[in-house]
Structure formats: C-alpha cells, structure tokens
C-alpha cells in the first residue's frame, strides 16, 4: 500500500498486542506538514499506543509506518532514537520534566542530546521559553513551578529542536480548563509558525477543537472523522 | 501525648509495611533481611566475650601445673602428667601423657577413664584428622590405639587437636614445667584473663570497625522503600492525618521491618552459631554452646535496634514536608555547617592522643577511650561526607548530558547520595586503619625477633638420658634435613656450692662449634673459651678461663637438692674463640666454654642436656612434621620448636586474609543495600526515564548518568575514608609504640574493593535500568 499523497507521516494496518490485549487492530493514520490531527477515543482504546507506534517508541507487531518516505519499522532502534531527537517533539500529560534540572536546562536538553553546545542550547531554549511566556522561570526547578507553567516548559522543550512532527499525549490532562486552553493556544500557534505537524492524543472535545482533523480510535481500530463526514 | 494514639499510629504503620501486595512484602522482607544480618552480627559480637570467658575457664579447669612450687608426694590420689605437646603443620596439638599412681588419681576434664600405656583418648577433631589421609604423617607420631574421645568440657574449641595418652615410668623424670605430679586439675586460684594491651587494642578496633558499618547498614536498611512510603504518607495527609501522626505512622513502618529483622537476626544467629562450631579463625575455634549472648546485651540489641529504626526514620523525615496533595517536597535544605562535623573526628583524636606511646611495655589502654576515640573518628566520616559531597558537587561544572544529569541530581539530593556511601566509607576507613595496625605490629615483631632462619630452622630439646649422637644421626637420616648441629649443654661454677660465677659449657663436634663461634682451628680434643660475648660475658674477666683453674660442673644452689658438683680443671692448652651471632637469634651469641667430644670427661654426661639445631630443605613437603615424627620416635618428651620468622609471616597473612574477607563481606552487604536503594530510585523514575528515551535520549547517556551518580560520591567517600583510615592507623600505631609504615597495598586494595562494589552495583542496576527505559513505562492504562 502507498501512503496518502503529500503525507508526512502515515500508518497502514497497524496491529499491536500487549499479552492477550489487542491494543491496535488494523489502525490507519496519516498527517500532512503543518496539520494538527486529534486522536480521540475512550480510555484503553489504543490511542496512546497509536501515538507511541507513530513516534517509533513502540514497534507494531505488523503494519507499516512511513515517515517522509522512509519506513520506520525498517529502521534500527538507534536510527529511530536519532529521528526522535532531531525530527520529533513530545509533550506528555505530566510534563515529565527532569526534576533536578532547571527549567532552561530541561528545555535545552533535546538540543544538548543532539550535540549542541550548552550555551547555544540554552540560548535557543530561552527564546522558546519566552515565546511560551515562561522565560522568567528559567532558573527554577520543575518542583518550584505550577502545573500549567510546567506544561508550558514541556511544550517549549518539545519545540526547541524545531521538530517536523510534534506528539502530544493528553497535554492538558493534568491542567484546569483555563491553563489547558492557554497551553493549547501556545502549542498550536508555535507549531503552525514552524509548519510542524501535531499529533494530539486527547479524550476532551474542547482540546480536539484546536485540531484540523479528528481520528477516533475504538477497540484498536481507527476512523477518520473528516472523511466520514 | 496520648499513648493509645501513639500505639494506634505505630500499628497502622506496621500494617502498611506488609500491605501493598508482592512489592510490599518484598520490601518488608528485604528490610528484615538487612536488619537481620546486622542483628546476627551484633548478637555474635555480644556472645564473643562469653565465648572467650568459657574458653579461659575451661583452659583453667584442665590446668595441670603445680602453682605452689611444692612437690606433691606420691599418694593414691596423685597423677604424674607429662607435657607431650606437638605441632602438625600450622596447628598445635595439645598432648599429655598420664600415669595415675593410685585409684583416686584425678581424671582430666572431659575424660572418663585413664588410657593404659599404648592407648589414648583424643579430641573429636584430632580423631577425624588421624582417620583422614591428610593425617597420615601425624598418625606415625600418634600411633597409640584410640580408646575414647575427650568430651566438650575438656576442650577449648571444636577444632582443638588434643590427646591424653597412657604412660609408665614418668615419675623418676619429674621436672617442673614438663613432668609434674599433681593431685588435682585446675587452677585453685583462677584469675581473670590478662590481655596483652596491644591485643586488646586490636580486638577493640576490630569490633568497632566491623560494627560501625553494620549500624549504618541497619540505618540504611530501615529506609528501604522510603520514596514509596513518602507517597503513601502524602495520601494519608490528604485524608486528614496531621504531620506528627504521619511521622509516627512512618516510624511504625520502620518498626515493623526492624522487629521482623530481629526475628530474622535471631534465626541467622542460630544458623551462624552452628556454623561457627565448624570453623576456625586464627587457630581459635569455639563450640556452639560457647556462643551465648549475655542476656543483658541481647536485651539491649532487642530494644536498641527497633528504637534505632524509629529514631532514624523520624530523623530522616525531619527535613521532609509531607503535603496532602500527594506531593512530597524536601524542605529547603539548610546549608551544612562544617564546624560541628569537624568536631567529631577531632574529639576522637583527642580521646586517642593521651594513649600515644603506651605501647607494649608502658602500660595499659583505656578501653573506653580507645572505643570512644575510634567510634568518633569513624563517625566523623559519616558527618563529614555529606558536607564534602555537597560542597564538591556544588562546584562541579557542566559537562556532557550524562554528567549534567548526574551532577544536578547530586546537587539536589547530596544527602541521600552521601548516606548511601557512608557505610562503605566507614568500612574502608576502618579496614585501612586495621591493615596498617596489623601490618605495623607484625612487621615490628618480626624484626624484633632477630632470628636468622637461614642457618637453622628448627631446634630440638632432648630430655635427660637421651643420647645426643644417636638422636643427631636419626635427624640426619630424616627426609628434608640438610644439616644437624647437635650439642650438649651444662653449667660450670667457680665453686661446688653457691657459685659466685657461672658459665655455660657447650659440647659439640668441630663443625657444630664453628657454627657457634669463630674458632682459630679445631680438632677433636680441643677446648675453647669464648671472649667478647654479649650474651654470656662471664669469661671476659679472665678469672674463670685461667688454665689450671678448678671449676665445678653442675654446681649446687642454695636451698636446692645437691647437684652433681663434678670437678673440672681448665686445660693448659685452652684456645680462645670469638663469638658469632647466635645460631637462631643474633643477639644470643654463644659464650662460655666450648668443648669437643674427646675433651669431655665421661662423668659430665648425666649433667648435660642435649639440643640440636636443624637446617632444613624447605622445599620438602611437611619437612617439619618429618622432624617431629623422628623426635617422637626418639622419645615422647623430645621437644621440637620451629623458628618463628616464617610462622609470623604466615600468621600475618592469615590475619590479612581474614581482614580482607571480613571487610569484603561488610562491603558486599552494604553494596547490596546500595543496589536496593539504587533500583528503588530508578523505579521511582520509570516514567521520566521512558519519557527521556521517547524524545531520543541514548540509553548509554542514561546509563552513564547512573554510573556518575554513584561514582562521584563513592570517589569522595573513598578519598575521605583513605584520609581518615591513614590518620587512625597512624594514631593506633603510635599508641602501640610501633614505627609508622603505610601499607599502600592495603590502602589500594581496600579502596579498590570499595570501588569494585560501586562498579558491581552499577552493572547490576543496568539491566533493570534498560527494562525501565522501555516505552511501556509511558503507558498509563
């Protein structure tokens, strides 16, 4: 099967089982550069597994994932790690910031992992933090900032490498609605400004409203809502 | 304060310790095993003084020396007993020949019937040895029929080699110290054991050094599962538990582990006690029944360990703010102050300083000051290390990502890192000090013997009436004997009774006499006077060595029975000789008259004692035992001695090996707790690790970060341990009046073992780390 024309990242017939539990059962997915796609579904439906497969974190049992013309399943673990470092960005529900590092060091971490010298990495990190309105937190540690601030720092970290695809797994799950909306606004604005595609996993309709398109996952199968319309 | 509330909170904590499914149980058992190992060691230590007392009492109970010095007349309740001790390889064999003189003769403890001539009763260990292939050489010497075994009451250790053999005709040879007539066993006025001060110092240091890390280990063990517990406590705060209740619940959890640890410890001790009965340390063994901890000390352990667990937990929680929102934040750490931390080791040094120079002869050591000083000095490590780690990691610059992750983590929780390393640092510091002390004391003793074992390695004393020539020939025919220097010795006085001047007479062939002194020339029939001897300068004033002067062989002393008083005239052709360094001790150079066999009057024979020095081919296996077998063949009272230099070295090797084994065991124990804490911390960070891997962090980077996190505090800990160890070692050597020599091999090996423990811990934590970095960690459902 060939990926949909012009898509940056696509998946065909993905199957993934954890023991006896079938998490994905023939799921399909595609996203174009600059597009924001929301992956929705109830708890345990397989949406996070789909995100992990698309990001090359988890290898599917069968099916193909193509990124920019390259098949992910044909890549080694090291190659997939390198891809995640340079082309992808991640935001998780609880930020997952390193508690020992200051906020600016956390944001600079992906750049440093790519070999950027510390000072240069922290300069870039700071500019992203300012864009996300958390520049004044640069010397604070994650334990010293609020949940909403921490999540904005996490968004800054996900964008600091100027990724082509941003994976966000319930990015507002731990925030109140006001903070959640602000994070989503900043995240989508920043992504659109760099033409990054965003794969947004959520079960909240108001978060999904920030997307261009929605895909619903249920019992491991996916359904493109826009095409269905 | 409400006692019921306290008890209820503690009990709730105890319940929490065992809930939480498999993980909860694993944590509780792990804590109990850790505490149990420590408790077992503590119980063993509290039992040791008792074991030494029992040994001492049993030794006193079988004592067969007539302390009064008065000769016991023969009666129907007397026994003639002869010392027929021997050695087999490295082990001493206690032997006594028994000749009961009447039906009421006293039986030695542990023996229910006298063996007849040609029979013997033996200790179980000797029986086993004689029946084994490895005991074949000894069997040649102890060929009497075994008719029974000595029971526990007659032995001082399970591995003791001892025998009683039947004998006849001993009475005519009664001589104080060797063959005696007794009417009772045991010292009528037993004294408490008087320890050599240096030995006391060694024992105290060994105890402190081994127990300190154990105490720290127990403190660490009760903190197993600390982070999970903190989360649980936060949840309790959420449902309304106040701060002090929460702390009491935490203390209850620690209490549960400690109490279970006491049970485990008692079990380990019982197993270890049985095991102790089958082992021998530095030629000392004990029976399991000796290892009874003193009830008071055992009670102290039973109370102190749970109390310590509770206190340690409360102390550890003092800087933790437990909030109800499921978040546990460490209170802003106060900057550590150096001054009081320095006070501890300085106070330790101050306690030890007054005893510098007390040495071997100059007096005793105050055991409280020694213990207190060593404890404070070693405790100083645990006080200084957190400050050093905090100060150093606070100044560490940024490097690669792995370095940055590790350094930042250490900066945030330097106290945790230091407490993980404390046990290792204390163990290493103590081991270095002990190495130095043992090595210094041993080197000093070896030097001070002045023995030159290159000329002769064994000495044989022949009892009265034994032919020196025949015996010498038998030794010459013995496998592995290269040369035999046989002599007969007696004393000459300037008068028959109450001689003012005495000098030694030594009879031997020219080859032998040349080993004793520098002779101008020698042929059989010559007599020499040795001038210039440091050891026996009696001939130096020329009066006794005047040709024609009448001297008396075996003169009588005041108040003693009449001796042989054989007159002898100094010959006219007396030759002068110069001394040589002593055959086995360079200070004991030979003085007096030297005489070749032809010059010796026949009448002298009964007044002379025989002695032979043997030069051995050390490459012959068991050469000493071949000599001992020949000696036993000549007569049961022939006494052999092996010159000490090599034995001392062997003994030191044994101590060194023992120390290494002990220190390695303690370090392995601490390493295990380090691994548990490490794994626990990694598990806590499972989600974070998975997230880091998700955005492309190399596994190598995270693994290296774990290595740095352990290696930096360990490096600092080992540096501090080396400094404290060397200081303590130096002070202890100065206290025992021993020249200070740094045993660098010991320092490097101990720090090497410490470093190896860290490496092993890191290597062991890598597979779980890799597992935790799997993307499954990101799953929430």
Task: Please describe the structure with a list of short key phrases separated by commas or semicolons.
heterodimer; A: 229 residues; alpha/beta; Rossmann fold; 4-stranded antiparallel sheet; 10 strands; 35% helix; B: 781 residues; alpha+beta; 4 domains; 11-stranded mixed sheet; 7-stranded mixed sheet; 19 helices; 13% strand; elongated
Helices and strands in order, then pairings?
The complex is a heterodimer of chains A (229) and B (781).
Chain A: E1 9-18, E2 21-31, E3 36-40, H1 47-54, E4 62-67, E5 70-71, H2 77-86, E6 88-91, H3 103-113, H4 118-131, H5 147-159, E7 165-169, H6 177-193, E8 197-201, H7 205-208, E9 213-218, E10 221-224, H8 225-228
Parallel strand pairs in A: 3-8, 3-9, 6-7, 7-8
Antiparallel strand pairs in A: 1-2, 1-4, 4-5, 9-10
Helix pairs in contact in A: 3-4, 3-5, 4-5, 5-6
Chain B: H1 3-18, H2 21-61, E1 79-83, E2 86-88, E3 91-100, E4 119-122, H3 124-131, H4 136-141, E5 145-149, E6 161-166, E7 179-182, H5 197-221, H6 226-238, H7 243-276, H8 295-316, E8 320-322, E9 328-330, H9 339-352, H10 367-395, H11 401-412, H12 414-449, E10 458-462, H13 468-476, E11 481-493, E12 502-507, H14 510-516, E13 517-518, E14 527-530, E15 550-553, E16 566-569, E17 575-579, E18 592-595, E19 609-616, H15 623-634, E20 639-642, H16 644-684, H17 686-694, H18 699-735, H19 744-772
Helix pairs in contact in B: 1-7, 2-5, 2-7, 2-8, 5-10, 5-12, 5-16, 6-7, 7-8, 9-10, 10-11, 10-12, 10-18, 11-12, 11-18, 12-16, 12-18, 12-19, 16-19, 18-19
Overall SS class of chain A: alpha/beta
Helical coverage of chain A, percent range: 25-40%
Determine the number of helices of chain B (DSSP H or I, runs of at least 4 residues): 19
How many E strands of chain B?
Answer: 20
Rounded to the nearest angstrom, the radius of gyration of chain B is: 34 Å
Strand content of chain A: 25-35%
Strand order of the largest sheet of chain A: 6-7-8-3-9-10
Mean pLDDT of chain A: 88
Provide the β-strand percentage band of chain B.
5-15%
The total strand number of chain A stands at 10
How is the biggest beta sheet of chain A arranged? Answer: 6 strands, mixed
Structural class of chain B: alpha+beta
What's the number of structural domains of chain B? Answer: 4
């Amino acid at each position: 099967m060939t990926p949909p024309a012009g898509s940056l990242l696509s998946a065909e017939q993905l199957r993934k089982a954890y023991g006896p539990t079938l998490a994905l059962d023939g799921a399909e997915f595609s996203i174009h550069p600059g597009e924001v796609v929301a992956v929705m579904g109830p708890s345990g439906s397989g949406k996070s597994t789909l995100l992990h497969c698309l990001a090359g974190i988890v290898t599917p049992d069968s099916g193909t994932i193509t990124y920019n013309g390259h098949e992910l399943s044909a890549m080694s673990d090291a190659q997939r790690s390198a891809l995640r470092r340079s082309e992808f960005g991640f935001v998780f529900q609880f930020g997952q910031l390193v508690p020992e590092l200051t906020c600016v060091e956390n944001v600079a971490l992906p750049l440093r992992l790519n070999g950027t010298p510390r000072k240069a990495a922290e300069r870039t990190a700071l500019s992203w933090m300012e864009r996300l309105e958390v520049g004044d937190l640069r010397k604070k540690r994650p334990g010293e900032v609020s949940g909403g601030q921490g999540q904005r720092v996490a968004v800054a970290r996900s964008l600091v490498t100027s990724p082509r695809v941003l994976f966000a797994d319930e990015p507002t799950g731990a925030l109140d609605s006001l903070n959640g909306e602000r994070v989503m606004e900043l995240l989508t604005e920043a992504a659109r400004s760099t033409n990054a595609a965003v794969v947004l996993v959520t079960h909240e309709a108001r978060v999904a409203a920030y997307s261009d398109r929605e895909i619903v996952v249920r019992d491991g199968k996916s359904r493109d809502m826009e095409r269905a319309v | 304060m409400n006692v019921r509330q306290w008890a209820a909170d503690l009990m709730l904590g105890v319940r929490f310790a065992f809930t939480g499914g498999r993980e909860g149980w694993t944590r509780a058992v792990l804590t109990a095993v850790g505490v149990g190992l420590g408790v077992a060691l503590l119980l063993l230590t509290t039992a040791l003084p008792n074991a030494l007392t029992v040994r001492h009492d049993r030794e006193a109970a079988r004592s067969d020396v007539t302390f009064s010095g008065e000769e016991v007349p023969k009666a129907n309740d007397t026994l003639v007993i002869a010392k027929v001790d021997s050695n087999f390889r490295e082990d001493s064999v206690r032997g006594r020949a028994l000749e009961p003189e009447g039906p009421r003769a006293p039986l030695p403890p542990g023996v229910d019937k006298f063996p007849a001539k040609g029979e013997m009763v033996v200790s179980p260990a000797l029986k086993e040895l004689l029946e084994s292939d490895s005991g074949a050489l000894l069997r040649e010497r102890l060929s009497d029929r075994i008719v029974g075994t000595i029971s526990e009451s007659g032995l001082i250790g399970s591995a003791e080699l001892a025998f009683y053999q039947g004998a006849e005709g001993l009475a005519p040879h009664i001589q104080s110290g060797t063959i005696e007539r007794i009417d009772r066993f045991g010292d009528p006025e037993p004294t408490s054991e008087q320890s050599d001060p240096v030995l006391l110092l060694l024992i105290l240091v060994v105890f402190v050094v081994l127990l300190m890390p154990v105490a720290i280990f127990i403190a660490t063990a009760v903190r197993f599962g600390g982070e999970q517990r903190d989360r649980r406590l936060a949840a309790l705060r959420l449902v309304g538990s106040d701060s002090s209740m929460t702390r009491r619940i935490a203390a209850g959890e620690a209490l549960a582990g400690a109490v279970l640890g006491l049970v485990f410890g008692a079990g380990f001790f019982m197993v270890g006690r049985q095991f102790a009965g089958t082992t021998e340390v530095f030629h000392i063994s004990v029976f399991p029944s000796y290892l009874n901890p003193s009830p008071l000390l055992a009670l102290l352990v039973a109370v102190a360990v749970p109390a310590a667990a509770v206190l340690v937990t409360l102390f550890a929680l003092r800087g933790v703010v437990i909030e109800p929102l499921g978040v546990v934040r460490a209170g802003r750490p106060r900057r550590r102050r150096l001054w009081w931390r320095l006070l501890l080791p300085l106070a330790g040094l101050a306690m030890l300083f007054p005893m510098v120079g007390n040495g071997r002869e100059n007096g005793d050591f105050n055991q409280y000051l020694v213990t207190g000083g060593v404890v404070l000095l070693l405790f100083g490590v645990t006080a200084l290390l957190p400050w050093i780690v905090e100060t150093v990691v606070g100044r560490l610059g940024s490097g690669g990502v792995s370095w940055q992750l590790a350094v930042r983590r250490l900066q945030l929780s330097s106290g945790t890192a230091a407490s993980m390393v404390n046990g290792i640092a204390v163990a290493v510091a103590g081991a270095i000090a002990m190495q130095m002390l043992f090595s210094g004391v041993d080197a000093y003793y070896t030097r001070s013997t002045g023995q030159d074992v290159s000329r002769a390695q064994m000495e044989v004393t022949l009892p009265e009436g034994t032919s020196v020539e025949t015996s010498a020939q038998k030794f010459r025919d013995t496998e592995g004997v290269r040369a035999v220097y046989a002599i007969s010795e007696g004393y000459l006085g300037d008068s028959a009774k109450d001689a003012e001047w005495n000098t030694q007479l030594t009879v031997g062939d020219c080859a032998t006499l040349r080993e004793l002194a520098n002779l101008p020339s020698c042929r059989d029939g010559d007599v020499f006077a040795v001038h210039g001897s440091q050891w026996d300068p009696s001939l130096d004033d020329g009066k006794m060595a005047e040709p024609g002067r009448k001297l008396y062989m075996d003169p009588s002393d005041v108040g003693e029975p009449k001796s042989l008083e054989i007159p002898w005239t100094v010959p006219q052709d007396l030759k002068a000789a110069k001394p040589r360094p002593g055959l086995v001790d360079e200070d004991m150079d030979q003085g007096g008259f030297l005489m070749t066999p032809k010059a010796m009057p026949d009448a002298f024979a009964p007044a002379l004692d025989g002695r032979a020095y043997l030069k051995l081919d050390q490459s012959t296996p068991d050469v000493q035992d071949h000599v001992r077998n020949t000696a036993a063949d000549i007569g049961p009272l022939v006494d052999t001695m092996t010159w000490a230099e090599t034995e001392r070295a062997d003994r030191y090797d044994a101590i060194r090996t023992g120390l290494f084994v002990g220190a390695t065991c303690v370090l392995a124990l601490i390493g295990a707790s380090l691994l548990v804490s490490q794994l626990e911390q990694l598990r806590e960070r499972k989600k974070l690790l998975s997230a880091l891997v998700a955005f492309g962090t190399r596994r190598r980077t995270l693994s290296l970060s774990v290595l740095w996190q352990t290696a930096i505090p360990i490096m600092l800990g080992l540096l501090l341990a080396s400094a404290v160890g060397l200081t303590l070692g130096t002070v202890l050597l100065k206290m025992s009046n021993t020249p200070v020599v740094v045993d660098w091999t010991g320092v490097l090996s101990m720090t090497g073992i410490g470093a190896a423990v860290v490496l092993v811990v890191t290597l062991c934590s890598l597979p779980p780390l890799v597992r935790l970095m799997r993307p499954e960690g990101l799953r929430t459902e």
